[in-house]
Amino acid sequence: MSDILHIVGGGMAGSEAAWQAAHMGIDVVIHEMRPKVETFAHKTGNLGEMVCSNSFRSDDSEQNAVGLLHWEMRAANGLIMSCADQNRLPAGGALAVDRDPFAETVTARLMAHPRISVSYEEISTLPDDGNWIFATGPLTSAGLGTAIAAETGAEALAFFDAIAPIVYFDSIDMSRAWMQSRYDKGETEAERTAYLNCPMDRDQYEAFIDALLAADKTEFHEGETATYFDGCLPIEVMAERGRETLRHGPMKPVGLTNPHQPDVKAHAVVQLRRDNALGTLYNIVGFQTKMKYGAQTEVLRMIPGLENASFARLGGIHRNTFLNSPTLLDGQMRLKSRPNVRFAGQITGVEGYVESAAMGLLAGRMAAGEILGHPVATPPGTTASGALITHISGGAEAKTFQPMNVNFGLFPPVQGLKGGRRGRKDRYQAYTDRAKADWLGWLEQTALDVA
Ligand SMILES: Cc1cc2nc3c(=O)[nH]c(=O)nc-3n(C[C@H](O)[C@H](O)[C@H](O)COP(=O)(O)OP(=O)(O)OC[C@H]3O[C@@H](n4cnc5c(N)ncnc54)[C@H](O)[C@@H]3O)c2cc1C
Fold first, then answer.
1. Residue 343 alpha carbon to ligand 1 centre in Å
2. What NCBIfam families does the annotation carry (predicted)?
3. CATH of the structural domain 166-312, one choice from 3.10.490, 3.30.1150, 2.40.30, 3.30.390
């Protein structure tokens, strides 16, 4: 088998993967379809182009999970972070970058590397041999999308996300909410109590519908269409169709008894379902929405039990090609059915520039390690990079899998620390201290592996 690593897509993930593998001594070819084939969001032929906002979000590596991911990538000689730092703009605690010079820097540094070459072409098949990383992102070309769906089965490749908001379990007021599946259905106690229920009386429901209808909504991007709505209507669109629609849909109050008020029949019930194996995250069932983030938190905190909710991620609906990674990928990001093919970036079901680049960093190192005959271990789940890869390759619920930002809910809890809002600062500090030590240990161990 050839020792060359082929990377399809020169965005955040593909660029980082190429850089990491080349630094481990591997020859890399990046296959990038732009500028020959365009997407509706990219504007240039540059590698590492940012398609929308120019922010890499928080740069706080002690209290913020995305800031921690920055730290980990910097410690691992990350190209994307280095180019972001070089083109940084003032933005308070956030890392904002000057987008065109940023992408020009990424392109120039990749082009200048003696082990990296770029071939401007669209790849539309999954190859049978050779070493490949597919990092084609949310706007993967149609031809390649068809080839991937043929391999994985159409139901395992989505073309749009429909993200329901996700809440940290420890921020839910359980003196108002309770655990119960409708009609107590299920063989085991865990199944009979699989849902977390938040009840509303008539006045609360009416006020909620008013707020939903009045909330600011995000417009669709050019090139996005609303045809994908069937089966995943945003809650505000349901409310627009009639004030009772939600009560007959995701908020129906049937088959449930509130143990806090057994004699009172709820007018509507919002249900949340566990989102990860750790049980730290719950998604609000059927609550995909195009409400703007500010409006969304305000409206959702009107739900009894969620008054003080902290959100691991807010809802949205976007054009987004992504795999059902928990069923398709192994812990090395290889396609189980075709292990010479890895995936990286947003197509694996992470969300955001930083998370995508981080998955590129891991895929690049893992692919290079395999070619060198020194496998690179999956990083521990206590690190930000490890928590993400653990989530997408099996920690997440496969049935309801939707793209995920990095957040502390993905980390195994640190024992012995106070829960809730009061203990948050100490808890986050403990997560990030542990992550940094474990990440440095992993870097050292994997560097020895390939020495
Ligand atoms: C409209 C829109 C707005 C977004 N806004 C934000 C935002 O504000 N902040 C944020 O953090 N994230 C945002 N995202 C998500 C963003 O796309 C990702 O965070 C990030 O760019 C993903 O990195 P990636 O490397 O996986 O994909 P990309 O950066 O998109 O890179 C994929 C590359 O693959 C190429 N490609 C696709 N198919 C083929 C093929 N068949 N052959 C060869 N090359 C191919 C593409 O041209 C592209 O260069 C947005 C996404 C979209 C679609």
1. 13
2. gid_trmFO, PRK05335.1
3. 2.40.30
